[in-house]
Amino acid sequence: MAELHELDLAEARDLLRRRVISSRELAEALLTEIERAAPLNAFLTLDRERTLAMADAADAALAGGEHGPMTGLPVAIKDVFCTEGVRTTAGSRILENFIPPYESTVTANLWRAGAVMLGKTNMDEFAMGSSNENSAFGPVRGPWRNGKGEDLVPGGSSGGSAAAVAARLAPGATATDTGGSIRQPASFTGTVGMKPTYGRCSRYGMIAFASSLDQAGPITRTVRDAAIMLGAMAGHDEKDSTVVDRPVPDYEAALERGVKGLKVGVPKEYHSAKTPKEIEDLWLEAIEWLKAAGAEVVDITLPHTEAALPTYYIVAPAEASSNLARYDGVRYGLRVMPDEKASLTEMYEATRGAGFGREVKRRIMIGTYVLSAGYYDAYYLKAQKVRALIARDFAEAFETVDLILTPTAPSAAFALGAKPDPIAMYYNDVFTVPSSLAGLPAISVPAGTDGQGLPLGLQLIGRAFDEETVFAGARVLEEAAGFSAAPEPWWKKGS
Ligand code: GLN
User: Which of 185, 191, 326, 435 has the most CB atoms in a 10 Å sphere around its CB?
Assistant: First the structure.
């Protein structure tokens, strides 16, 4: 048997049900690994007692012959999901001491399925970023190292979740994706990241960034585990009017459907001279894998792809500027009074000035600008129209194809501090943002490594609410790629 902390969710589930291992042993082993991995800075909050109490409750249920889909399985939670009684910061100073009085629906669903909370993971502040360098609590160091032995980013904004799963500190973690924050860190860390259709998971209790784009999903080490976890996270919720009232299919049952007879599209606009050859080559190789598995692969066109990034960087900041207006020092979170006689406006300014980091301020300013009376039509309204065209491109493509295959990110993990220019950072999302704007399900599967041995992911995009076909295709890629590389645990040295 593998060491306890190395078990994936499906393996642990089997051993728990057969009562070969207990949830407590598993949780304790993982908590020890988490402690030893302090240099990664992947976790912001741990609550050992709560974790072990949840594990004991799961063991009692298993002893009584009862279990839910995830009973006893430990998972890490991105610190953007409100957890009742457990500090939730969204990676921001402004929420440094915020203890939510309520539970997000996604986490409540996980606990109802029997899962055990390991802790809350580090992230880019308010989920804005692609490297986890925007966290107010310090960057996450990615578990992988390049040939030069440099510290690399884990990707973002769900960098803590991705690093935890890749470093075997958690077999699965929740994440959120607004423009790529599940898929890009998954690609950088050699993990699987599934962003479901907009409306599949409830956003209730998920601290909002851009409400028309935000979706929850899992990061895991295998496609099967992503199916298990998404099944437990998803579902209708009266507290979020944008969640659909449709039954959650048995995603695991869809895994072995294969791709025989399916049509897979390869969008010509995703070829770019800027993409490293290794990524292009991997993409071409995957086309052969899918063909060998019985799929027909065809070239398609998504003509408005080029407009996706600029559109996203208007829509997302606009929504963020509105969502973040609530952090005003009045109701909850940080309050800074410059002096006793400060006016309300001075209090707002001091609070927001001290509480938000640079990237968040930049987005609030861009968002406020594009929504202002003089510029609304020129920017926000136009972006909304372009967004509709991007969605239409996909709708037309999906009249003929069942899945779309692309790279997940335009590079492998880069060194910490290597991209000080925000525009260069935004380019990370070039392949993930279009499907976010269209609200479609998309997965990143670890498919190979670059010349330095760093993981590279491939993305499959599916029709709205057809996560089953996405999982089936991902399983084929996973099997063909046979990705089994794991990072060298340098963070344990000296511990
Ligand atoms: N990197 C993108 C951004 O900074 C996406 C973030 C996300 O998906 N939450 O907005």
Answer: 185
Query: Could you confirm whether 157 is annotated as catalytic?
Result: yes
Exposed/middle/buried for residue 451 (C-beta within 10 Å: 0-12, 13-18, 19+): exposed
Cβ distance 414 to 288 under 8 Å?
A: no
Contact 235, 248 (CB under 8 A): yes
Of 246, 162, 154, the C-alpha closest to 199 is: 246
Quick one: which atom of ligand 1 is closest to the CA of 156? 1
The verdict on domain 4-262+441-493 having CATH code 3.30.565.10 is: no
Catalytic-labelled residue, pool 23, 104, 131, 181: 181
Q: Report the DSSP pairing between strands 442-449 and 455-462.
A: antiparallel
Residue from 181, 188, 427 to probe ligand 1 pocket by mutation (most atoms less than 8 Å from CB):
181
Q: CB-based contacts of 258: which residues, under 8 Å, 6+ apart?
A: 293, 294, 472, 475, 476
**245-291 confidence digits (pLDDT tens):** 999 999 999 999 999 999 999 999 999 989 999 999 999 999 999 99
Q: Where are the domains of the chain?
A: 4-262+441-493
* CA of residue 428 to ligand 1 center, whole Å: 9
In 300-357, which ranges are continuous DSSP H helix? 308-323, 344-355
Indicate the pTM of the whole model.
Answer: 0.98
Alpha-carbon dihedral sign for residues 430, 469, 256, 70: positive
Which residue reads 């080490």 in tokens?
221
Sheet harboring 43-45: ordered strands across? 43-45, 116-121, 74-78, 172-177, 215-220, 192-195, 442-449, 455-462, 403-407, 263-267, 296-300
Between CA 447 and CA 369 the distance in angstroms is 41
Catalytic residue among 78, 120, 195, 419: 78
Does the Cβ of 209 fall within 6 Å of ligand 1?
yes
